[in-house]
Amino acid sequence: MTALKVRGLEAQHGLLKAVRGVDLDLQDGERLALVGANGAGKTTLLRTLAGIHRASAGTIEFDGVDVTSTPAHRRASMGIALVPEGRRLFGSLSVIENLRVASAANRKGAWNVDTVLDAFPQLKPKIKAAAGSLSGGQQQAVAIGRALMTNPRLLLLDEVSLGLSPAAVQGVYESLATVVKQRTTLILVEQDLQRTFDFAERIVCMLEGGVVATGRTDQMTRDEVMGYYFGHRV
Ligand code: ATP
Asked: Does the C-beta of 36 come closer than 6 Å to ligand 1?
């Protein structure tokens, strides 16, 4: 079944059109990666899907429902969860409090404090620590865990490895491997192309706000994707 159907989506920052005429289809359980240079519009697209940024044109259908004008908190309770770039935790709250805040959305599903801590075992000894006192990798784990606590049907992950050490990135992706066993539909923005190929089933290349190519990761090469990245159009 189609989880997400986006048609002609546009989003602006003032006069600047950051997302232009984007069409996107995502099947239930599919893992899609958005790839493109800095400023290609990936973050704006994710924020527009989550309802944090307003669409200036086009439509977003989620599970067959038009959510284009639905406010962010309603989209969250319908099952769209964003792990934002920069994590945005409640730094003075403990790990467990950060997780519990999110469970207020209260959708039923496999994720609760126990299953999140099983997926992110590095958080177990830290549940009472202030989130702001944790390492970058641990904070990212809390940010992903917080999104999972809402039992999302669509998980949007924006640059989860940004600014982390290689070991921390490895830890985050090992936990994400546990997450995808639940067949959660997700869209990932990741600068590391190898990780993108390893993790996603399909890639969408963006350039200057538009989609310039899409393909299955087992049918595309890294060189092809790099070509789109640096500006070839189809
Ligand atoms: P990055 O990897 O740098 O996050 P991105 O592909 O996610 O890049 P966006 O952050 O969505 O791209 O940016 C798309 C365009 O919108 C860029 O030209 C950027 O400069 C512009 N932009 C992004 N945020 C704002 C903002 N808050 N105000 C004005 N312009 C913005």
From this structure: yes
